[in-house]
Amino acid sequence: MEQTENRRTRGRPRQFDLDEAVATAQRLFHARGYDAVSVADLTQAIGINPPSFYAAFGSKADLYSRILDRYAAQGAIPLPDLLSADRPIAECLVAVLEEAARRYAADPGAAGCLVIEGARCADREAKGAAGAFITAGEEAIYRFIAARYPDQAACIQDYMSTVMAGLSASARNGHNFDRLLATARLAGVGLEQTFALNRQGREK
């Protein structure tokens, strides 16, 4: 019995906190980007050895996938709250862009969107995991637009994705919240004009 217990605990330090380890790794990935973070960086930041790391997480990509789940639950833009059928559609989409600006600039040491930036990485598995989250968000925005403007939904959703990717990249390049917010609001003017033209076309 004692030998079995020893085998179960040998690879993991007594004080190892899995949730805290994932949070620490998330900060590291967000600050540096997926490709720039090595397993050695992760084990040093978390305070465990490589065997313990692989026993707990499987691989760097597996850990990143777990981090994406955590980010989606705690740090991602709350699309269901912002995309409301009771509000003007342009107002909702502008709110999404403004929230993106706010979140992407919230921590200068870990700027931009963890998911968007992760989708730019070279690792196929991690890139695919991030891409799946992006696709889910794009589909939610598309469905929201299509409910009122089905003919324009694809184009406007592409516009939203492009602007949000640009906001994330700009945040990574040092743009502060005020600059990002100004960009988001300028993009919002384009959205409002687009929907106004669509309404005029319907009324003719």
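[next item in queue]
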Amino acid sequence: MTPVPPPRWTDEEFAADADIARANFVETRMQEPLEQYLDRFEEFRLTVEELIEGTVDLTQLADQAVELLTRSPDMLTSIRYLASPPISEDDLKELADTRLSARQLTAEEGAGAQRVIETVMLGLDRNRFPWVSEDREPTDAERAAAVISTAALIATQKVQTARRNESKTEQEDQIAQYLVIQGFTQVATRAVSNLSDAPAPGEFCRESMFGSRKADLIVRLWDGRVMPIECKVSNSSTNSVKRLNNDAAVKATVWLSEFGKLGVVPTAALSGVFKVHNLASAQGQGLTIIWAHNLDALGQFLDATNPN
């Protein structure tokens, strides 16, 4: 029996679905509560204020390095954001040649903590903290502006990161719940090095290695083929190239090479903003496109793979 081919879309169909996905993104984005940002802003406003006042306008930052860096995650974040651009934790560990654990920062009389402060101060934002390089006391206005601008930077980044993570998790949950409704059973996560390692027909697992690349979900179709699914949420057409073409489509090519065209159906479940030519390009590389707003198309394909 010839396997049922997965859905394939014309440019016109891609355009119609892309418009719906974008409209859904805009509606969701505009309805997001401001409270999340305001809560994070107030949290870090207090921390940054404590940092500046407690170190006498940053002049005693090095003297208090160990105590400040080990006080709380929020204080460590605030110190990282003294630099411009802010220094990520991963970069800071490399640049300062230390881990950011309390044990490492306090070892050797705080040598690691001192290197962290030195690294941050080398990149200190002179626009937000002009008094440091000018070796003077800040005015009240400068101090207030530094606190507000730094807290705003941190809060904005925290909210954006949380929004990306929440959107992707929500989409994975949505797909998993839909699979259950379609009669599939969720099973334990596993590494799939060959098709015999995959879930049985009618089963799926989440966040698993599929060959050399990780898949958000791995579904075993009723006819025995395996459908690795990548969940992709994009907030711009530029971002969509990275998530769709440079990630999901590349994974599809790798999976087809590793497992064969007859054994796998690489799939991406999409929501957000995508351009038609990028969608068509990804589909041309063997990636099946499913929209989060139209999971019935996935359901129809799943049903079609069931010989019963």
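[queue empty]
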